[in-house]
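hiii, so i know i said id send this last week but things got crazy w the move. better late than never?? heres the sequnce for the chain we talked about at the cafe, plus the structure i predicted for it. fair warning i was half asleep when i ran it
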Amino acid sequence: MPKPRRGVDTTNGSAAVSELHVTAAERLGAVGQRFTTLRRTLVDLLAEARQPLSIPDILSSEPTLAQSSVYRNLAVLEEVGVVRRVVTTDDFARHELAEDLTEHHHHLICSACGVVEDFTASPHVERSVARAISEVSDLTGFTSEHHRLDLIGVCRACA
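okay and structure toks below
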């Protein structure tokens, strides 16, 4: 069973949330953007989520938000490195906080229903992936900055 994502605890107005907001504001400010109320709402929704969220997921959580504004603001948050987009097998990309704001993890993507679940690989698997990346880098001259492991298949509910 995949481990739940270790997002940011937003339940008690914690220091982690304040730090997350400061980081988001700094990254936006660096490109002349503001950390608006809508952007704060999106960051908080993604911080509270246990898996990446699609635009319909976000809109069902906050029905007062305008779809076009959500799209635009997620794009800006992605551009500054606060949010990352997870491409899936269905029509909807999912969004989550950037990995440097949470923790390193990977995804299980169901090709039948489109659900995306986070999982954390064991240290052994991560070392194996690092060795494989090093081997590819040596052979190709490509310099890897980071990696993602998305397993695409059928979830338990669809199996």
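btw DSSP finds five helices and six strands in the chain. thought thatd interest u
miss u guys!!
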